[in-house]
Amino acid sequence: PRMASFVRNRILALKAMKQVKVGVDSAEMLLMTPQTVREKIYSLLDPGMPTWNERSAKGQTVVSIAIFIVIVVSVTSFCVESLPQYYDRRTVTLVYIEAACIIFFTTEFLLRIATVKSIRKFFKDPLNWIDLVSIIPWYFALLMAVSE
């Protein structure tokens, strides 16, 4: 009885907040709502996850914008590095920018792995493989530089 009351109150609260989407059963929506810290972190990192309140929607937006900015900085740094005046030498600033971007991407990737419900499903998504393949070369180059 207590659980049924909780579920009923939660569904009513979600309906009151107009968060119930068309085609999604209220009980299913309740089950999909992030409950643990792990689920909340994953929902912040995955823009495809539905948001359940204004605060989590803002959090997803902030994280998505931060990732987008780091991507733009990384691509810009890569393009600047390819200019003729930088062929023979890399500036310390560009090296630091590249390292900071890779560390950011690695942290985000590892957080998603640590908080995902199913590792198997995670690695079935080709976009996650693209993320992994884009990170690995930097660490490989770092390993080769250290071993010399």
- Major sheet attributes: none
Helical content class:
over 70%
Number of strands: 0
Unreliable spans are none
Radius of gyration equals 21 Å
Describe this structure in words.
The protein has about 150 residues and is mainly alpha-helical. The protein has helices spanning about 1-15, 25-30, 35-45, 55-80, 90-115, 120-125, 125-145. Helix 3 packs across helix 4 (about 55-80). The longest helix is centred in the middle third of the chain and has 28 residues, at about 55-80. The radius of gyration is 21 Å and the shape is globular. It starts with a helix and ends with a helix. The relative contact order is 0.07. The mean pLDDT is about 75.
Primary descriptors:
about 150 residues, mainly alpha
Chain-wise SSE layout:
Layout: H1 2-16, H2 26-32, H3 37-45, H4 54-81, H5 92-115, H6 119-124, H7 126-147
Describe the structure concisely.
By secondary structure, the chain is mostly helical. The chain is built from 7 helices and no strands. Helix 3 packs across helix 4 and helix 5 crosses helix 7.
